[in-house]
């Protein structure tokens, strides 16, 4: 019987699991991290350390040397990948760069070529022990390369920007993009710890507080393409001051992992933050958290792309004439209610610059309005303060000639009704001065 290496056998099982999961492999695939870790173990097995050097050698140094040592003339894909990895500012260690390079090779279907270059470059291959390394054992190399070929025929759609934790772990955090409209201030209280920019708190009434996208405990990874990895105190403020009055695209890494638990590489850092700030409340404010672990989320809200979307009843709309001031609401709302139209359960999504209303069942968009188009918003004073409405010009370009209409909706609770009205009102506050 031919000798077997347990790493190759385990990698084969992992590759089969990836194949069984479907055509496209994304970062959320539960077998991806294991597959990458096994590739890393193969690359490290038998890798010998230099005798007279204070720096430990890792497989990144092997690939980094290939463009200089391999004279085959077919190195363009490898050279580009190595250079892209080398200049990435989010990676601080050889381990992080090696992991980024492997993910890049999976995404570009070039993993077999990378290993082929390594195998026919003697000056790099000699760093591996002939007795221990899989790469220098002919009986092991063939099945290993066959598995790499299988991986190269699979589709990997990986977020290469989500790489700031590769120095520490193959497990990646939940990473989302927070788009912020131009505003006077975003309103985040930040703490710099171990080269990470943590959100400690949100200032009441600020854009971040209104949007409810970022939570205390989350990490600001980059702002408009500028990485904040390994930042010094105040660096995020410097970046924001340069971008004052501009739209912001903030990459946020969540303190919660995909499964809802604390993201493991953050446990020690979050513990240190809490020791410094005993009042720190991770995630939503206490008033927004469920009363107990057994309590189910309120059916009046759901999450969409990290935003809170309200589930409300759309009661109808009516034309109200040529005047759209707040004074008309107390007359316009009864006008709609008297029609006794069947209500529709809708999703009210309040984004940074506009709101949309979508039928929850059919997914059909009923209307979309930018905040500057809305002339007023308010609650109905009777019977239970759950009904709210807003007026909008039928044609925003010429409201004087086309008139206004009033859209009426009902929230699930008095508190939610008040929240929605306040968020719409804040929408004009944050947009009217730059539109």
UniProtKB/TrEMBL annotation:
InterPro entries, sorted: PDZ (IPR001478), PDZ_sf (IPR036034), PH-like_dom_sf (IPR011993), PTB/PI_dom (IPR006020), Run_dom (IPR004012), Run_dom_sf (IPR037213)
Limits of the PDZ domain: 185-240
Ranges of residues in domain RUN: 26-163
Domain of life the protein comes from: Eukaryota
A Pfam cross-reference name: RUN
Gene3D superfamilies linked to this entry: 1.20.58.900, 2.30.42.10, Pleckstrin-homology domain (PH domain)/Phosphotyrosine-binding domain (PTB)
CDD domains per UniProt: RUN_RUFY4_like (cd17682)
Segments forming domain PID: 310-428
PROSITE patterns the record matches: PDZ, PID, RUN
Protein name: Uncharacterized LOC103359108
Organism of this sequence: Stegastes partitus
